[in-house]
Amino acid sequence: MLLPLILLLAMEFEVMLLSLTEVSSRCGEDVVLMCEANIDVNKYLSITWYKGNKEGIIRKNLPDKLSWYDFGRNVSLNNDNSLQLAKVTPDDSGRYECMVSARVGFQNLKLPVQLTVQDCEPDVTTEGPHGPEGPQAPHLPLVWSLVGYGAVAFTKITLSIMIIWIFHICSRRKRRLGR
Question: Which stretch is the leader sequence (predicted)?
């Protein structure tokens, strides 16, 4: 009696891992990661896309209920259950998985996809004649910097001494007038 129940539970958690699909892209392109499984709504409960170590991206409870995880970038799920990433960057590179959860008696599927995004090149069309940050200030020699800081320090000390001297004179006059 327990043996059929144990076998049924073992089948529920069994996962069929399919071969790794590799996708390459240039920086800034839109990418579609395919979930290449023949998904029959009568056999499967949900489709979930993950990145890396089970960082959830998006989940579709069949037939059409979508829920998003806190992934940190906008994604969409196409009608064929492929994951669409707009304007990819090298940060998007990594291993993605399309996990298809099966009903009892059917097999779960795990479809891995490896995305590789090339490094971004600087956009030379938007750079001005002075580079992407605009005009650069000329580099001043260390001597000029020290002279500038010294002049500011000297001015502060001189003003402080003058203010102390004025307070001293005012307090002496008050004492003389007060007697």
Answer: 1-17
Residue by residue, DSSP assigns 1-28 as: -HHHHHHHHHHHH-EEEPPPEEEEE-TT
Please tell me whether the peptide bond between 63 and the residue prior to it is cis, using omega within 30 degrees of 0: yes
Phi, psi (rounded to 5 degrees) for 6: -65, -45
Residues 109 and 147 in one domain: no
Whether the CB-CB separation of 68 and 90 falls below 8 Å is answered with: no
Round to whole Å and give the CA distance between 32 and 86. 9
- Domain-located, residue 123: no
- Identify whether the C-beta of residue 109 lies closer than 8 Å to the C-beta of residue 102: yes
In this structure, which amino acid lies at residue 169? I
Residue 170 lies in a domain: yes
pTM for the full model? 0.57
Cα separation of 138 and 141, whole Å? 10
CATH number at residue 101: 2.60.40.10
Residue 29 lies in a domain: yes
Same domain, 161 and 85: no
For residue 74, is pLDDT > 70?
Answer: yes
What is the model's pLDDT at position 13?
Answer: 45
pLDDT at 8: 39
Tell which wins on pLDDT, 139 or 69.
69
Same domain, 59 and 92: yes
Give the residue numbers spanning the domain of 178: 142-179
